[in-house]
Predict the structure of EamA domain-containing protein.
Amino acid sequence: MTAIVSPADATTHPEPQWTAALFILLGASVWGISWYPYRLLAGWGLGSMVASSMTGAAAAILAAVLLRRHFHTFQWSWLIPALGLAAGVTNAGFVWGTVHGTVMRVLLLFYLTPVWTALLARLWLHERLGWRGGVLLALALSGAVMMLWSGDAGTPWPGSAAEWAGLIAGFAFACNNVLSRLVGQRHPTMRPEMRTVVVFTGCACVGFPAALLFDGVRAVPAALAQGTTWILVAAMACVLVGGNALVQRGLQRLPANRAALLMLFEIVVAAVSSALLTSETLSAHEMAGGACIILAGALSGLSRRK
C-alpha cells in the first residue's frame, strides 16, 4: 500500500490537478485488483506470503534501480526500519487476508485505517482530534460493529484469521502513514521516492519470515519450476512499482485530503473484481456497515479541507 505524503513533500507543478487525480485512481485500482494474482500464485502452490515476499523483493530491486539517482538524498534514522516494518506488516496482512478470506470483508476492515490514523496522530504527532474527528471515529466503528455482528460468532469481532489479518493490516497502514509524515518532517531533504524503496524492502523482509510461519513450503519448489510463476511475479513487481510511482506523483500535486478520498476508489475496484471473479457476496447488514466505514473515510478527508 501507499502512504500519504506530508505537506512538506508537496511541490508546485504545472500539470493540471485532474491528471494527478487520474494517477491516484489508477494507483488505487492496482491495489483493488492485486488480490487476484496473489490468489493465482497461491493456487499454483507458491503460498500467499512467499508470493508477497518475492514480489516485494523484486519490486524493491526494480525501484532501487529506477530511483538510484535519488539515493544521495537518503538519510538514516530509526524511522526508516520502523517505516519498513509497518509497510511489511501492512502488505503481509492485506495479502494473506484477501487470499484466505472474503475480499470485501477483509478490505473494509482494512479501511478502518482513518480510526487508527487519527488516534496515532494524536499520540505521536500531537494533532487534535476535535469533536468532528470523534464523530467520524464513532461512525467508522459503528459500521465495523454492524458489519461484524452478522458473522457466525454473534459478536462484533473478526470471525476468521483472514479478517484479523485485514484489521491488523489497517492498523499497520495507519502506522505507515504517520511514520511517513514523521520522515517527511524530520528529513525534509530526503526525496519521497526513497520511501518507495523502503516500503518494498520492508514487504520482502517481513514476507519471508511470515512465509516460514504461515505458509506450507512443500509445494514451493514445484511452483518455482513453472515459468508462469516467475512471469507473474515479475509482472506484479512492475505493476506495483508503477502503481506506487503514479500515486506518489499524484500525492505531490493534490492536497492529502483529496488524495485520501480518491484512494477509496480501491474499494470500488475490489467490489467489482470480487463480484466478477469470485462467488463471494455480502449481506445487507455487511453492506450497510461497509457503507458507514466508507462514509467515515470520505468525511474524514472532507473535514480536513481548509
Summary: Residues 161-186 form the longest helix (26 residues). Confidence is low (pLDDT under 50) at residues 4-13. The chain has 14 helices and no strands.
